[in-house]
Specification:
This protein is mainly α. The protein is built from 5 helices and 2 strands. Bound molecules: zinc ion (ZN).
């Protein structure tokens, strides 16, 4: 028995591999629903159960708080794995991410191409 997807589940295959369910593009989710796409059964079930929420998101109503629009990874390990992969595959030729960091907005992990020194300077200017 496979467990159900929640907002914080990670997609384990396909185009959005290693993306948190809540960070998937609304269009992508609506498309799954509208086309009755059951390639990923768990994801389909998730979409079906949360369709109202997803539709609300697509219409721009702020019923669901989305803290961060960056691709989120659940752990440093996960982020580093992805970082390594991107560097090795030559994917994302411009603005290649160079490090991972824990986000203070959504508490997930993101990748950034900003050097640590630059980021630190920017942090200083924040209120
Ligand atoms: Zn974030």
């Amino acid at each position: 028995m496979e467990s159900k997807y929640s907002d914080n589940s990670i997609i384990i295959s396909g185009k959005y591999k290693f993306t948190l369910v809540k960070n998937l593009p609304v269009k992508y989710l609506l498309n799954i629903y509208n086309s009755n796409n059951r390639n990923d059964k768990q994801l389909f079930e998730y979409v079906k159960e949360n369709i109202d929420k997803i539709k609300a998101r697509s219409s721009g109503k702020k019923t669901v708080e989305i803290k961060c629009d960056k691709i989120a990874y659940v752990s440093r390990k996960e982020a580093r794995f992805h970082l390594k992969r991107i560097r090795e595959t030559g994917e994302q030729e411009h603005k290649k991410p160079i490090r991972s960091y824990e986000c203070d907005k959504c508490s997930a992990w993101h990748l950034t191409s900003m050097p640590y020194e630059v980021w630190k300077e920017l942090e200083k200017t924040k209120p």
